[in-house]
Amino acid sequence: MTDATGPLIEVHDLVKTFDVSRPWLARVLERLPVQTLKAVNGVKFTIRRGETFSLVGESGCGKSTVARLVVGLDRPTRGSVVFDGTDLAGLRRRSDIAPLRRRMQMIFQDPYASLNPRWRVEDIVAEPVNAFRLVANRSERRRKVAESLRQVGLSPEDARKFPHEFSGGQRQRISIARALAANPDFLVCDEPTSALDVSVQAQILNLMKDLQKRFGLTYLFISHDLSVVYHVSSRIGVMYLGRLCEISAAKDLFRQPRHPYTRLLLDTIPDVEMTGRERVSVPGEVPDPIDPPSGCSFHPRCPFANERCRQELPTPLQRGQGMVACHAVEEERLPPFKRSDPGQ
Amino acid sequence: MALLEVDRLRVEFPTRRRALVAVDDVSLAIEAGEVLGVVGESGAGKSVTGAAIIGLIEPPGRMAGGEIRFDGRRIDHLSDEEKRRIRGNEIGSVFQDPLTSLNPLFTVGQQLVETILAHSDRSADDARRHALRLLEDVGIPAAAHRIDSYPHEFSGGMRQRVVIALAVCAGPRLIIADEPTTALDVSIQAQIIALLKRLCRDQGTAIMLITHDMGVIAETADRVAVMYAGRIVEVGRVRQILRAPAHPYTTGLMDAIPRLGRDDADLAQIDGAMPRLHEIPEGCAFHSRCPHAFDLCRRRRPVLQATGDAAAACFLIDQERSDD
Fold it and tell me: Do B120 and B168 meet the contact criterion of CB atoms below 8 Å apart?
């Protein structure tokens, strides 16, 4: 099944709906209908071996749900996730799933919540080693833990300590060491630096880049911070209300954003260079995902929306190496993008 | 005379072994109508400084030294009752999480009216009219209808607007805004910043803007104070500090920010982490992470020295001067 040249991850028509109705009794008594929330709606992308694919968007756009679906923490309502040629939804037996699970690991946002406070670092880092029976005996296990800690810039002596003895940045290193202990190919990183201070964020981003080079890792990177995403990504997908509205190579996305929502996001990046560029204040906010707008879900905030946008859902258009879903792009009525570009 | 003067402020948190110093010898001033940014990493003491000014340091923390003067009058040793009158009337506050500032059991209209009545002698009807005008001012759509909604019926961005309306309803001359945009999405962040700037311009309100986000500082503040381990390491005009920082910590912080259009393979990073309160070293608190540290930095604590439109606490400035 394995094809060493094909993409590592293929996501097809992914849909995840959550039931957000009132409790059953209340619902029946008050004669309310079942309410569902489409957190992810028809998402499709591929991730090539060794690249960093990022998903960006505002809170509630479904990016974290996609991350959880891809690693199998949640089951999709529809669609499939194909990992290295194998459809994960087709696997039912634990013995079939485990070898794939080992190859994909996840790093979470909050390094205070994702490490068990009662476990020593060695037990935390050794957890995947034990779960996947990667070593034969204790001394080998200790060596593996020491190696993982060293790879993330911690010392093997730290293995005896508890998580509370570390700062936020060091804790995130422990999470990364735990992921690395499984010898993975693919890491899903859900906002790995948003809980950290900038100077520490730089350390973690540099470490992740370095590990990617050394071990040929593939990343799915989830973030709301466009500057961080620009720095780490090969390709970027922009999500809005559960749908992908644009996929593009990182450099192209920032130089020539196609979708009006991408342009909006770029305009809201604060100007640290103090070039005098006014941050454009965009009216409105993300609509209620339980009751999304008709047609293109971005139309209530879009300065280029017309009648067609209000009624018809835009279909994905192939553009160069990327994708964009927008009627205005299709009809070529978008003005060229202009932004006072620092440094280019 | 500045509107607010903080002079050699020291805040301690007593523990069983010894007192931890969260804010150490901090002096700053805010002029009427000015936006002073206070920036630093978590634990740098910026929020505690803000809390000290409005007299809301969480016990067992206490002000252990220094003076706070508002409009020339000392306010740090007033009674609780007098402090309460200053909060709201003279100094408003906006915190990070709008939900904690709003009472979930009352409509936003009730909360605004109550606050207005507490700080003025308007009639109830007049207070409600004023509340409505404030909600319109901060950009709540269909305010006449929304005034009778409860906080949970608003989105995060709208809630923060309500909190800002509450903070300004008594017409304060200073607003302490502690991470007002951190919990919000980028596009909403821009709206809230525009709102704060407009209030500042239209009503001449001074703002102390506490944040970890240099981008927010760059767009909003006139001057900025950079804090590290409870001390101010650099303070001055925003433009100078962001473009030509003098303190190695500020330089490191600016270089660590990923930027569009900059394609360096690696970000510049500051190794290590800010020392925790119980292990702040002798001398300059930054010396263990500083690439330029020399012997003196480990022994003596540097004081703020003027560098053009700014001041920085670093021995390198002396050294450069003596080299010239």
Answer: no
Quick check: A230 and B257 CB within 8 A? no
* Tens digit of each residue's pLDDT, chain A (344 residues): 455 677 999 999 999 998 888 888 888 888 888 888 889 999 999 999 999 999 998 888 899 999 999 998 888 999 999 999 888 877 778 788 888 889 999 999 888 889 999 999 999 999 999 999 888 899 999 999 999 999 999 999 999 999 999 988 899 999 999 999 999 999 999 999 988 888 889 999 999 999 999 999 999 999 988 889 999 999 999 999 999 999 999 989 988 899 999 998 888 787 777 666 666 666 777 787 788 888 999 999 898 999 999 999 999 999 888 999 999 999 988 888 876 444 33
Residue A232, CA distances (Å) to A6, A28, A54, A227, A269 in order: 22, 50, 8, 9, 17
**Cβ–Cβ of A269/B253 closer than 8 Å?**
no
Task: Give the closest residue to B212 by CA, choosing from B252, B178, B167, B176.
Answer: B178
Looking at the complex, does the CB of residue A106 fall below 8 Å from at least one CB of chain B?
A: no
B214 backbone dihedrals φ, ψ, rounded to 5°: -60, -30
Q: Which residues of B touch A270 (CB under 8 A)?
A: 213-216, 218-219
**Helices B124-137 and B108-119, axial angle in degrees (round to 10):** 120
Residues A90-128 as b or e (16 or more Cβ within 10 Å = b)? ebeeeeeeeebbbbbbbbbbbbeebbeeeeebbebbbeb
Chain-chain contact of A203 with B193 (C-beta, under 8 angstroms): no
Write out the H or E segment, with its range, that includes residue B112.
helix B108-119
| Cβ-contact A198, B212 below 8 angstroms | yes
Q: Which of A59, A209, A272 sits opposite B242 (nearest CB)?
A: A272
Q: Do B157 and A285 touch (CB under 8 A)?
A: yes
CB-nearest partner of B215 from A167, A203, A270: A270
State the pTM of this model.
Answer: 0.85
CA distances to A199, A267, B181, B248, B281 from B288, rounded to whole Å, are 15, 38, 32, 12, 8
Packed helices B108-119 and B80-89: angle between N→C axes, nearest 10 degrees: 120
| CB burial string A306-333: b at 16+ within 10 A, e below | eeebeeeebebeebeebbbbbbbbeeee
Task: Please provide residue B298's backbone torsions phi and psi, each rounded to the nearest 5 degrees.
Answer: -80, -20
Q: Are strands A86-87 and B174-178 parallel, antiparallel or unpaired?
A: unpaired
List CB contacts of B131: < 8 A, sequence separation 6 or more.
B109, B112, B113, B116, B147, B165, B169
Interface test with A, best of B238, B267, B274 (most A CBs within 10 A): B267
**Contact call for A231 and B267, based on CB within 8 A:** yes
How far apart, in Å, are the Cα atoms of A230 and each of A84, A151, A199, A224, B266? 26, 25, 17, 11, 12
